[in-house]
Amino acid sequence: MAKHLPGYELRRPSGQALPGEVRQESYVARPLRREEAAEAVAFYRKAHGQPMSEEVWDWRFYSRDKRLQMMPAVFHDSGALVGLVPGTVRPIRVLGTDLLSSQTCHGLVHPDHRGNGLVFLLLIRYFQDYCRALGVPVAFAGSANDAIVKIGRIVGLSLMYKTPWRERRLSTRLAFRRRLGPLGTGVSVAVDAFGPKPQRRFHGKDWQVLTAPDPQFEDLWQKHRDNGSVLVHRSFPELNWRWFQCPVPSTFLALYGQGELLGYLVFRQHEEQGVRLGRLLDLFPCHDEEIVHQLLEAGCWAARRAGCDFLQLLPYEGTPLQEVTRQAPWREARKTPDQAVMQVQTPDPKALGIERECAYLQDGRHWYYCPGDSDFLD
């Protein structure tokens, strides 16, 4: 397989070919071709206003194994592209078994063609058939809205989780600007300089911002990969592709103890309605409360220095991340709870030798999930 995807066995049903064109009423579903990428990017910008570039598109969908590209698209008889639900193949670990999954991202149906859900259902069913024929037994997607969750039940999508965002205030800038106007910025700088700060140093440990992957990523993954029941791979090739080859920049913090990599945290900065946010996208390992606490303190320090007003995160249920952020200075963010959905694609897991794994991963409580497992601004 390709340089980013080791030689995992594809769980391909015997005698099932990849689907060709599928017609329903005035629509045709088929794979999007690489030379149509510019049309797809223009479609997103026109239909949804999403800030996507061809560079990001190429990185996410075409920089890995060419045999595993999944780009289901729907065209109207007029020739117009009206729907897409692309997938990025991601290796996952389930009960100690390595499988391939499809992380669906940037799924979109043009507003003029949503109607009774015909295009959406055509897309999802075509995507499912493609996954099954390709030998990818499970798919998942983050940031699913209520409409996707509701209509997805028709085609077998399951809600993996619904979790409120938590946040920690890193600056008084917004509070003082509301009270004092432009003068508030200067006041907040002074107050923040003498107010409580995230912990920067830990006994016998230090953290660094990495701009290149550390070879110890693989050792960290091998050591902790079976502490979660279901999780997307965080091996060296995967972390290199996800964070260091991605055209959209992120801040990658690594925690070391006597030179040994103990864990890492990734956050990405963006702005919403004048609020400067740091969004935690990945944290690993996830089972050690002390390491989680220290990574969060380092992340808050780095986000504060970068000018963020808040650091926001998803505290997945039953993890130390939830325990550490349950109390002050953390609080519930004024955001719509995040939802993720998943589906086992193969109709006969027993025939493929993965009946136990497929049954297990259908319960969202068995997953360790971070927003960076899906797509955020990329």
Word description of this protein:
It is a single chain. The chain is of the alpha+beta class and 378 residues long. It has two domains: 22-163 and 339-373, Gcn5-related N-acetyltransferase (GNAT) (Aminopeptidase, 3-Layer(aba) Sandwich), CATH 3.40.630.30; 166-332, 3-Layer(aba) Sandwich (Aminopeptidase). Helix content is 29%, strand content 27%. The chain has helices spanning 37-47, 54-62, 118-134, 146-152, 173-180, 183-194, 216-224, 236-244, 289-305, 320-324, 355-361, and strands spanning 22-24, 27-31, 72-76, 81-84, 87-94, 97-104, 108-109, 138-141, 158-163, 166-169, 205-210, 230-232, 251-257, 260-272, 275-284, 310-313, 330-332, 338-344. The protein has a seven-stranded mixed β-sheet with strand order 11-13-14-15-16-10-17, with helices on both faces. A six-stranded mixed β-sheet has the order 9-18-8-6-5-12, with helices on both faces. Strand 14 and strand 15 form a beta hairpin.
Using only C-alpha atoms, the radius of gyration works out to 22 Å
Please summarize the sheet with the most strands.
7 strands, mixed
Q: How does the helix and strand content classify structurally? A: alpha+beta
Q: Would you give the CATH topology of the largest domain?
A: Aminopeptidase
Question: Mean pLDDT across all residues, rounded?
Answer: 88
Q: What general outline do the C-alpha atoms trace?
A: globular
User: What is the N-to-C order of secondary-structure elements (H for helix, E for strand)?
Assistant: EEHHEEEEEHEHEEHHEHEHEEEHEHEEH
Low-confidence stretches: none
Binned strand content = 25-35%
Please give the CATH architecture of the largest domain: 3-Layer(aba) Sandwich
Helix count?
11
Total discrete domains: 2
Tell me the name of the CATH class of the largest domain: Alpha Beta
| First-residue to last-residue Cα separation | 24 Å
In the CATH hierarchy, what is the superfamily of the largest domain? Gcn5-related N-acetyltransferase (GNAT)
- Biggest sheet, spatial arrangement of strands: 11-13-14-15-16-10-17
What share of the residues lie within helices?
25-40%
